[in-house]
Amino acid sequence: ESDTASEISFQFNKHKKTPSTGSHSSDMASVSSVSGSVLSVYSGDFGSVDAQGTVEFALDYDEKNREFQVHVSQCKDLAVVDEKKGRSDPYVKTYLLPDKARMGKRKTSVKKRTVNPIYNEVLRYKIEKMVLLIQKLNLSVWHNDPLGRNSFLGEIEVDLASWDWSNRKLNWYPLKPRSLSAVNGVDHRGVMNLSIKYVPPGSLGKVCPKNPPSGEVHIWVKDVKDLLQLRPSGVDSFVKCYVLPDTSKKSYQKTRVIKRDSNPVFNHTIVYDGFHTEDLKDACVELTVWDHEKLTNHFLGGIRLGLGTGLSYGISVDWMDSTQEEVAFWQEMMLAANEWIEGLLPLRSL
């Protein structure tokens, strides 16, 4: 399904004793994460009405079905959007932040002509508990305008790591206004659309004495959107890939260059074998996007997929600095063997 593909084979045990000394490993400094929800959560009309009122909901996790459930009961005393007609048509929307395309949004039905809507609906997410606990729930209320932009009525954000999961009762929470100061300060460098898959050792049927079974990590770089344009003629971009701590030529792969396009489609697949399951805790897939020029390439942004522990094979390294969203993406791959995991991840700046 991809335009180009690469396959690389190497053994991680050659790199367990010493940290990487290649210059590439320190090209990206540790930075604060940029929420992937910028493209979706922060779209709408925020200035037309003041947030007010309350929302009643409960949270639960179904261990048997591995399902996160948001029980949205009702809202009270919401703001009136259309003052002339004295009406609001509210609905509730939820995101798991940092947002991923695979998760997406959930929303209730629209209740027309009321500031006290009753929903009694359950919004569901299929997600592993350990992945859920490093995310936040963003629950917001909106007025539905089929002919224009929906109006923001208020929100609440819940840190799921500190949530009391024994509390399954419906409770009331005040709706808060949204602060746009953090969004205005975001250094947005684009978003990478990709999928990854882990094939465990022994599941490929390639067992023989000379070729011991080992796992594979598949990386499918699909496209990148909204790249920075460093010159009027546009950007000539390509993607580099390393599996750290290996910065040798054996680890290095890159896509072809897409010219004069700030939304390049690469459709490039890379397969790294030599992966054992325990290596997934200590390795890190680094994907960086570059603008190609004859004399020098310019860094545009990148992501690092790993557990973000700061350690690799017991050694402290600066490149094991994955954001919460990147960690959740990597963990989801580890938990779903032989399945493609799709993600939409924001590129980080230096």
From TrEMBL:
GO terms for biological process: exocytosis. PROSITE patterns: C2. Signal peptide: none annotated. Residues 1-12 have a biased composition (Polar residues). Its main location: membrane. Residues 1-29 are annotated as: Disordered. It is found in: Cell membrane. It holds the Pfam family C2. GO terms for cellular component: exocytic vesicle; plasma membrane. Transmembrane segments: none annotated. The keyword Repressor does not apply. GO terms for molecular function: neurexin family protein binding. It comes from the Eukaryota. Residues 51-173, 188-320 form the C2 domain. Keywords: Cell membrane, Exocytosis, Membrane, Repeat. This is Synaptotagmin-like protein 2. It comes from Brachypteracias leptosomus.
